[in-house]
Design goal:
alpha/beta, L-arginine/glycine Amidinotransferase, Chain A
């Protein structure tokens, strides 16, 4: 286990502006990727057995290119993880273990958002309440602070009024230059309401103060079946400072058809932080993935950009190859690796949901 470094915490927005912060784009150099080893069987009822092997495949590929900071519940959990990783040829010196209890393993949402402030890394510690839906979040609420300590990052806790701001990392995506993507369904809806008193302008101020954002693009709804109620990382992603990929549905009878068309319209009307239009690339949706009569949020947009590679969820679908080819064109200098997520998606999340990047300072 890596030693923990001391860090300071402040909730002051004035402090946050003393040294302006910038949230880097995901394709910028990483120091590490954070993951938490799966253990909560109720996230994959009846389908848990293959999940550790999916994690092992992801870690095997990531650890070839960058350090993997792997959170495990305890000594016994670490032992089980090491066994699986060893069998999968994924255990090496680039994998570091941290024994911290977690409720769930969706580190994108429970972890902190790392930003750069001058030459140092800062940890933006949002309040986590399990997507304003579940009651078991108390361990996960602590994870972002622990991550920041290991990274020797100063912690900042955004507040609105007298309340800490609730936000999940999967609800935002940035281009590293000052533009952020999010959805009205997630941040402004009264369903699974994170911050009841916050309006559009309030979020934009928080993003400006803590992430260096000057321009927010508000999309409408997320994909059908999304348990988070509208996370943008299943929907639309920046792939360069001026280009996004966004999922589209070809079948007019599909539940996603109209809402995805509306998001494309918004993107074509949107501009970047300099007032320039965005290039918009269509990414297909896979055929509906249904298990136990429930549609799951299967989407190729839930890819993760790491040093040298892009990990892409695939579903044994005819559109798998089309999506991989599109992302190969978008990232010509990175290896594009498809990871089968037909079982993983039963937990209502895929590769981007389970990862959190720590930028290189």
């Amino acid at each position: 286990m890596a030693p923990r470094s001391k860090n300071k915490t402040t909730t002051s927005e004035t402090k946050a502006r003393e040294i302006p912060a910038r949230m880097p784009a995901e394709w910028e150099p990483h120091a590490a990727t954070w993951l938490a080893w799966p253990h909560y069987r109720d996230d994959w009822p009846g389908k848990f057995e293959p999940i550790p092997w999916v994690y092992a495949e992801i870690i095997r590929n990531l650890s070839r290119h960058e350090r993997v900071e792997l959170i495990v519940n305890d000594t016994a959990s670490e032992k089980r993880a090491r066994k699986v990783l060893n069998l999968a040829n994924a255990l090496n010196d680039n994998v570091r273990f941290h024994r911290w209890p977690t409720n769930r393993v969706w580190t994108r949402d429970s972890g902190c958002s790392f930003v750069l402030a001058d030459t140092s890394v800062r940890s933006v510690k949002w309040r986590f309440n399990a997507w304003a839906k579940y009651s078991n979040w108390q361990h996960d609420e602590k994870i972002g602070s622990l991550m920041g300590k290991v990274a020797s990052a100063e912690e900042v806790q955004p507040v609105f009024g007298k309340q800490r701001v609730v936000l999940e990392g999967g609800s935002i995506d940035v281009n590293g230059r000052g533009t952020l993507l999010t959805t009205e369904e997630c941040l402004l809806s009264k369903v699974q309401q994170r911050n009841p008193k916050m309006k559009c302008a309030d979020y934009e101020k928080v993003f400006a103060d803590h992430l260096g954002i000057s321009n927010v693009i508000w999309l409408g709804s997320g994909v059908t079946g999304d348990d988070t109620h509208g996370h943008v990382d299943d929907l639309t992603r920046f792939v360069s400072p001026d280009t996004v990929v966004t999922v589209v549905e070809a079948d007019p009878k599909d539940a996603n058809y109209e809402s995805l068309r509306e998001n494309v319209r918004r993107l074509r009307d949107a501009t970047d932080q300099d007032g320039k239009p965005l290039a918009v690339i269509d990414l297909p949706m896979p055929s509906p993935v249904i298990f136990e009569d429930r549609r799951l949020p299967a989407s190729y947009a839930n890819f993760y950009i790491a040093n040298g590679i892009v990990l892409v969820p695939v579903f044994n679908d005819a559109n798998d190859r089309i999506a991989l080819d599109i992302l190969s064109d978008v990232f010509p200098d990175r290896e594009i690796i498809g990871i089968y997520c037909g079982d993983l998606i039963w937990g209502f999340g895929a590769i981007h949901c389970m990862t959190q990047q720590q930028p290189a300072s």
